[in-house]
Write a structure and sequence with these properties.
The protein has about 450 residues and is an alpha/beta fold. The chain has helices at about 15-35, 50-55, 65-80, 100-110, 120-140, 150-165, 170-175, 190-200, 220-230, 255-265, 300-305, 325-330, 360-395, 430-435; strands spanning about 145-150, 180-185, 205-210, 235-245, 270-275, 295-300, 315, 400, 415. GO terms for molecular function: pyridoxal phosphate binding; sulfinoalanine decarboxylase activity.
Length: about 450
């Protein structure tokens, strides 16, 4: 007779807890201790074919013994990149804040979705507290917002909300009833602006790239010129994206001047501060974002400069009329019922294009609780000081050449090998220099050095 599957527990709790204890010990030793130890490797790097032979990635019909599974855990950590390592310099995030890590662990353990108060009561209230604090740092007394899965999605949300605000009927009629829409952004902007235009049906051909100055900052006069050009071509200028902390140079667009242009032409003013937004926490450096309070929307990624951990990206709105809800809301009655036993205004999940949504506020909230605003400010100031220190050290070393004096915490430089020193006038100099490191941005144009994030 077949065994009744309901007659015994689905999981062995005792064995599960024992596995968790041993796994957490591996995480603490291999990922936290070794992963932040400067004497350890950032990564035990292997080629794909070699790593496939080392790791047992095959999925089989029967389960494996607990000790073997724990060995898999250890291998996964060992051969992965330790982004918390002091010498990890690859992307625009790094470091390990233990309080934020605990926040992530709690979130994963509770495994809830942030769409209604009934399923995530603590986190619904917490998210609004955190978003309000971020808005206050921008300079807004009121507004709206939501945590998104990354800065790219925050920028796409901004573009979608801006279109809805200008053409609310587009939610029902689609792009067929719209004029040709034009987007404006700098030549140094993040590539998510292009992705957003493509994703939303606006089209990348309708992005007008605005010129930048020698520091990579948007030129407001050229923005005005591009908007007038778009109008003469029959397009409707509806969205301007300014960047605070460009990916390569770390440039901050002149927000106040850009805001003036947007006001003259009635365009939505969005600030992509995914990288540079955390400078708002520093009284010494927040001047870099002067004028951000005039933006209609802002993208800000605390998972970068503040070490909150992936992912933690806020999309913030100055509007407090419910624009975000009206733009994205579908009013699914099986989830967002109107006759609940509490104020359904707390059911914020319909503000997003997602259904299930991870809790991204806890790690930032817990880290903020532990460090306070003053502690986070010191963290930002310290990053600036490290950058200034490194810039001065580079100047002392033969063969190293600054691309530009840093304004933010990006430090762009070239390493010039002995074979190329003193040969700056050669026709193929920049092409050859660009091949020195795979991380360099490529060859220059017209004898000018390309920007490098080396």
């Amino acid at each position: 007779m077949a065994e009744d599957p309901l007659s015994h527990p689905a999981l062995d709790k005792a064995a599960g807890e024992e596995f968790l204890r041993e796994a957490f010990q591996i995480i603490l030793e291999e990922a936290v201790r070794k992963g932040t130890d400067v004497t350890e490797k950032v990564c035990d790097w292997r080629k794909p074919q070699d790593l496939q032979e080392i790791l047992d990635l095959e999925l089989r019909g029967s389960g494996e013994p607990q000790q073997r599974v724990l060995e898999h855990c250890r291998d996964v950590i060992h051969y992965s990149v330790k982004t918390c390592h002091p010498r990890f310099f690859n992307q625009l995030f790094s470091g390990l804040d233990p309080h934020a890590l605990v926040g992530r662990m709690i979130t994963e353990t509770l495994n809830t979705s942030q769409y209604t108060y009934e399923i995530a009561p603590v986190f619904v209230l917490m998210e609004e507290v955190v978003l309000k604090k971020l808005r206050e740092l921008i300079g807004w007394g009121s507004g709206d917002g939501i945590f998104c899965p990354g800065g790219s999605l925050s920028n796409i949300y901004a573009m979608n909300v801006a279109r809805y605000q200008r053409f609310p009927d587009s939610k029902q009629t689609g792009i067929w009833a719209l004029p040709r829409l034009a987007v404006f952004t700098s030549q140094e902007c993040h590539y998510s602006v292009q992705k957003g235009a493509a994703f939303l049906g606006i089209g990348t051909d309708n992005i007008y790239l605005v010129g930048v100055d020698e520091r990579g900052k948007m030129i407001p006069a050229d923005l005005e010129k591009q908007i007038n050009k778009a109008k003469s071509e029959g397009a409707c200028p509806f969205f301007v994206n300014a960047t605070c902390g460009t990916t390569v140079l770390g440039a901050f667009d002149p927000l106040a001047d850009v805001a003036d242009v947007c006001e003259r032409h009635g365009a939505w003013f969005h600030v992509d501060a995914a990288w540079g937004g955390s400078a708002l926490l520093s009284r010494r450096h927040r001047h870099l974002l002067r004028g951000i309070e005039r933006a209609d929307s802002v993208a800000w990624n605390p998972h970068k400069m503040l070490m909150t951990g992936l992912q933690c990206s806020a999309f913030l709105l100055r509007d407090s009329s419910g624009l975000l809800q009206r733009c994205h809301g579908a009013n699914a009655t099986y989830l967002f019922q109107t006759d609940k036993f509490y104020d359904v205004a707390y059911d914020t999940g319909d503000k997003t294009i997602q259904c299930g949504r991870k809790v991204d506020c806890l790690k930032l909230w817990l880290m903020w609780k532990a460090n306070g605003t003053e502690g986070l400010e010191k963290r930002v100031d310290r990053a600036f000081e490290f950058t200034r220190y490194l810039a001065e050290e580079i100047k002392k070393r033969e063969g190293f050449q600054l691309v530009i004096e840093p304004e933010f915490i990006n430090l762009c430089f070239w390493f010039v090998p002995h074979s190329l020193r003193g040969k700056e006038g050669c026709a193929d100099y920049w092409e050859r220099l660009g091949k020195v490191s795979a991380g360099n941005a490529g060859s220059g144009v017209g004898g000018e050095p390309p920007f490098s994030d080396g």
